[in-house]
Amino acid sequence: MALLPILRFPDLRLKKIAAPVVRIDDSIRKLVADMAETMYEASGIGLAATQVDVHKRLVVIDTSEERNHLRVFINPQLGRCEGLQSGEEGCLSVPGIYDKVERAERITVDYLDLDGQPQSLTADGLLAVCIQHEIDHLDGKVFVDHLSQLKQARIKAKLAKQARVTA
Ligand code: NI
């Protein structure tokens, strides 16, 4: 396993639209293992392949408190979306920035598991938010794209300043 570098907003590669996974082979299994390691190491609750510059429709998530319930979604597709919730979101690609985003409260997602079997999951609360956030990444969207232009400009300025300080 290996830690993968995470792209940082406003890197334009975060805007790429990911292609469906055609075959679940050893390279996909290795990518999943590396993404999971990278997510746990960064204390994140989700990571999309887009964020590690692999433009395939693949997401890992673990919203459990014990950090021992890894979920893998291959070619995830949102089905039914119901209700609304609004909570503070953050993102490993937008370090140190948190803001409120409105999402569906309850969703159904269809996907393939690591064995290539079709699965369907209904989720609400944090897991539902996380799934919507990660599918956004696969579609080239970061959570700050849901915020006002003014907020986006402020976030870009703040991150540019951070990059200068740490460079
Ligand atoms: Ni994110």
List the helices and strands and how they pair.
Blueprint: H1 26-41, E1 46-48, E2 58-61, E3 71-82, E4 85-89, E5 99-103, E6 106-112, E7 118-124, H2 125-138, H3 149-166
Antiparallel strand pairs: 1-2, 2-3, 3-6, 4-5, 6-7
The structure holds nickel (II) ion.
Task: Kindly describe this structure.
With 167 residues, the chain is an alpha+beta fold. It has a single domain, classed as Peptide deformylase (Peptide Deformylase), CATH 3.90.45. The protein is built from 3 helices and 7 strands. The strands form 2 sheets. It has a 5-stranded antiparallel sheet with strand order 1-2-3-6-7. A two-stranded antiparallel sheet has the order 4-5. Strand 6 and strand 7 form a beta hairpin. The radius of gyration is 15 Å and the shape is globular. The chain starts with 25 loop residues before the first helix and ends with a helix. The mean pLDDT is 96. The protein binds nickel (II) ion (NI).
At the fold tier of CATH, the topology name is Peptide Deformylase
**Unreliable sequence segments:** none
Main beta sheet, described? 5 strands, antiparallel
Radius of gyration from the CA trace? Answer: 15 Å
Structural category: alpha+beta
CATH architecture: Alpha-Beta Complex
Helix coverage percent of residues?
Answer: 25-40%
Number of contiguous helices: 3
Oligomerization: single chain
Mean pLDDT: 96
Descriptors for this entry?
167 residues; alpha+beta; Peptide Deformylase; 5-stranded antiparallel β-sheet; two-stranded antiparallel ribbon; 3 helices; 7 strands; 29% helix; globular; binds nickel (II) ion
